[in-house]
Design brief:
- By secondary structure, the protein is α+β, with helices and mostly antiparallel strands.
- 49% of the residues lie in helices and 19% in strands.
- It has a six-stranded antiparallel β-sheet.
- A hairpin with a 5-residue loop joins strand 12 (451-456) and strand 13.
- The protein is rod-shaped.
- The two termini are 59 Å apart.
């Protein structure tokens, strides 16, 4: 059971069925209530019409014996003392009126003489009627009656009337509720039969529609399972030829797979390049130490120190890249970017600095690494002069580092920011560069909400522009 309800399709079918069921029950109840109310109103109208017809005859002095009360519906005529003075034919039992008597107790004939003892009380009655007048105070009640052995529910209309001789009477006329009960029962039967069938249709339609709608999702799931099992990130999930949420899910999944494939491939290249870069200085250092151990007079101490420094720098770069890839934040410490540039240029030959005091927020150590990497790159390629400037540009702090070297070809201006990329392999390796400096600089700039780009310097060479948001 839990497995069944764990399906989106089953939950959607159950939910739709419950909603429709509640709506059908509420609508059915409203229909039955409205139908019963309308039929009762019709019975009230018919009962009032019958009572008013009898009251009209009595108001004109019609004798009791001449009243045609019929035998289809119960009719009673009662005086002010509660005495039944006229009744319809065939009435055997009655309830819901002023009296349950079914036999007239007055002498058939004229109503004159009845109720004379109440004349004084009538004079004091605020609702007293004039002779020959029919009252407006209609009273409707529920009751039962048995006519010729058949019992039924009725709506009774009680209407007061005064004969032309001044006799006060009340006419009770009933209208059967069999039609109302039959109509309500028929409607209820139709609902009890039709509602389950309609719910079945809704459930089946919902099941089929959701199965069709979720079929692409199952395809995506199967392909993702296959990708997980094969570890082949080059595969992609099928994209439905639609414009709905499932198609967007497939496109997003493929975009995620593409990004994951790129990240994994980048990580593989990173590990391979790092292994290669570490292998060279380690092998050189080991060779020098082995030669020094066998022939101390041949030990190249400066070379060993240089290889050790190179290893130290490479290890530091790899550690920083690992922290950046792990999501290390830049922090929110305020610092003077002009001071960072001035400190980074201190002790470097041929570097001129024009640095205004601009305040940014971030990691001092990471930004110092960016400035140091940009200055190292400029010194590696400059012929004689390097210029570093710090200025404001709207909401940005701008650092520009320019050299008078050969510059960067337009086709290589994005490639140089990739890890382990060196446009001049021989010179970079001789100078100890591993192709990580500019990659680290751009990563740090991006994590500080800024950018790092390269273009031609006005005097030739390359100009690197670092933009960071001001505090």
């Amino acid at each position: 059971m839990s497995r069944f309800f764990g399906s989106v399709r089953s939950r959607a079918t159950l939910g739709a069925s419950l909603v429709v069921a509640v709506a059908l029950v509420m609508a059915g109840a409203a229909v039955l209530f409205s139908l019963r109310s309308n039929l009762i109103d019709q019975a009230d109208t018919q009962a009032e019409r019958s009572a008013r017809g009898v009251a009209t005859l009595l108001a004109t002095g019609k004798p009791y014996a001449d009243l045609d009360l019929g035998d289809e519906n119960p009719v009673q005529v009662v005086d002010t003392n509660g005495t039944l003075v006229a009744v319809s034919d065939g009435l055997e039992r009655i309830s819901g009126t002023a009296t349950d008597a079914v036999k007239a107790q007055a002498q058939p004939g004229s109503p004159s003489g009845s109720g004379d003892d109440d004349s004084d009380d009538d004079a004091d009655d605020d609702t007293a009627l004039e002779p020959g007048e029919i009252g407006d105070d209609l009273e409707l009640t529920d009751g039962t009656a048995t006519i010729d052995g058949e019992s039924a529910d009725y709506r009774f209309a009680a209407l007061p009337v005064e004969t032309d001789d001044g006799v006060k009477l009340t006419v009770y006329a009933g209208e059967s509720l069999d039609t109302e009960q039959s109509a309500v029962d028929t409607a209820l039967t139709v609902m009890l039969i039709g509602f389950p069938l309609l719910l079945g249709v809704v459930a089946a339609a919902t099941w089929l529609v959701t199965r069709r709608a979720l079929r692409p999702v199952e395809g995506i799931r199967r392909e993702m399972a296959a990708i997980t099992a094969s570890e082949d990130l080059a595969r992609r999930v099928p994209e439905p030829d639609t414009h709905d949420e499932v198609a967007r899910l497939a496109r997003t999944t493929n975009a995620t797979l593409t990004a994951l494939e790129t990240s994994v491939e980048r990580q593989r290249r990173f590990v391979a390049d790092a292994s290669h870069e570490l292998r060279s200085p380690i092998a050189s250092l080991r060779t020098q130490l082995e030669v020094g151990a066998a022939h101390p007079e041949l030990l190249d101490v400066p070379g060993a120190v240089q290889d050790t420094v190179r290893l130290q720098r490479l290890a530091a770069d790899l550690l920083l890249l690992a922290r950046l890839d792990a999501g290390e934040g830049p922090g929110d410490k305020r610092l003077d970017l002009g001071e960072v540039v001035r400190r980074g240029a201190r002790g470097r030959d041929g570097v001129t600095v024009e640095a205004a005091d601009v305040e940014v927020a971030g990691s001092r150590s990471q930004l110092e690494r960016v400035i140091g990497n940009l200055l190292d790159n400029a010194q590696r390629h400059a012929r004689s002069a390097i210029g570093a400037t710090v200025r404001r540009d709207g909401a940005w702090a701008v650092v520009e580092v320019a050299d008078d070297g050969d510059g960067v070809a337009e086709a290589d201006r994005e490639r140089i920011f990739e890890r382990f990329v060196r446009l001049d392999e021989a010179r970079s390796r001789d100078d100890g560069g591993a192709g990580l400096g500019l990659a680290i600089a751009r990563d740090v700039a991006a994590r500080h909400g800024g950018t790092l780009t390269v273009r031609d310097a006005p005097a030739g060479g390359a100009l690197f522009e670092l933009r960071l948001p001001l505090v």
